[in-house]
Amino acid sequence: MESLEAYWSEGFPLVEGWVDTRLLECLRMIDSIQRDAGITGQIGEIGVYHGKLLIALAHLADAGEKVTAIDVFDDQARNLDGAGIGSLDRLQDNIRRFGPTERDYAFIKADSIALTPADKTKLHESRGPFRLFSVDGCHTAEHTCTDLLTAQDCLGSGGVIILDDYMQPHWPGVTEAVNLFYARYVPRVKPFLYCSHKLFFVGYGWHGEFERACSGRLGPRHNVKATEMFGSRVVSIYP
Ligand SMILES: C[S@@+](CC[C@H](N)C(=O)[O-])C[C@H]1O[C@@H](n2cnc3c(N)ncnc32)[C@H](O)[C@@H]1O
């Protein structure tokens, strides 16, 4: 499919997965903020399932850019919370049907919590630095916190981490993970946007610009509120 909008209306409903249709506006908004600021980089996701979000992110990339999918795939003994049984065949089939073809795809079968510093360096050097990195793998606090650290280590300047299931009552480990991330580590990213149970983070130096841009582009709406999380201003869209 040629565009994100065509995928969203025709392919997206046919791909199994858990992505709120209202996310489209935020994805477009982040992409346009990054493009206006001249921010470049690659696309990545931990926890891909059948590619519902990854294909959308791939549509935001330019021809030839790298799109990296990290999942346990058929090694489901490592999928400790059983949130979606990843399938490489289904993912590749969906990319063939609905994804942009002229991208440089890589499919890395890995247990994300077991990635070593050397693995992360290789990921960053061979597939990054990342402009958009989605974290949606195993939802335990330990897995999610580790995945956030991986995303942070591989992020480019002005790159955005998209964390799924924050404050989603079915997956409390994700919320616990962000608490751990800010209490135990020295994060180099700050949250700036919350919508559809996804929390978006960007590097410290970019935070003000992203938060102001989101606030300005969304404008006054009954479901948009300026709030604060972990000491940072966040534009929250709810419900
Ligand atoms: C909720 S699904 C992801 C949904 C997907 N982002 C979408 O757009 O529909 C979670 C995925 O994480 C994968 N996963 C679970 N544990 C993992 C681990 N330890 N390392 C890497 N991937 C894992 C599962 O195989 C599954 O595909």
Task: Provide the fold topology.
Layout: H1 4-11, H2 23-36, E1 42-46, H3 52-60, E2 66-71, H4 88-98, E3 104-109, H5 117-127, E4 130-135, H6 141-154, E5 155-164, H7 172-184, E6 189-195, E7 198-203, H8 207-218, E8 224-229, E9 232-237
Parallel strand pairs: 1-2, 1-4, 2-3, 4-5, 6-9
Antiparallel strand pairs: 5-7, 6-7, 8-9
Helix pairs in contact: 6-7
The chain binds S-adenosylmethionine.
Search tags:
239 residues, Rossmann fold, binds S-adenosylmethionine, 8 helices, nine-stranded mixed β-sheet, 24% strand, 9 strands, alpha/beta, 38% helix
| CATH topology-level name | Rossmann fold
Protein structure class: alpha/beta
Strand content: 15-25%
- CATH C-level class is Alpha Beta
Bound compounds: S-adenosylmethionine
Helix-strand topology string: HHEHEHEHEHEHEEHEE
Main beta sheet, described?
9 strands, mixed
- Tell me the helix content: 25-40%
Oligomeric category: single chain
The first-to-last residue Cα distance is 30 Å
Shape: globular
Strand line-up of the largest beta sheet: 3-2-1-4-5-7-6-9-8
Give the integer mean of the pLDDT values: 96
Which superfamily, in CATH terms, is the homologous superfamily? Answer: Vaccinia Virus protein VP39
Task: Work out the helix count.
Answer: 8
Number of domains: 1
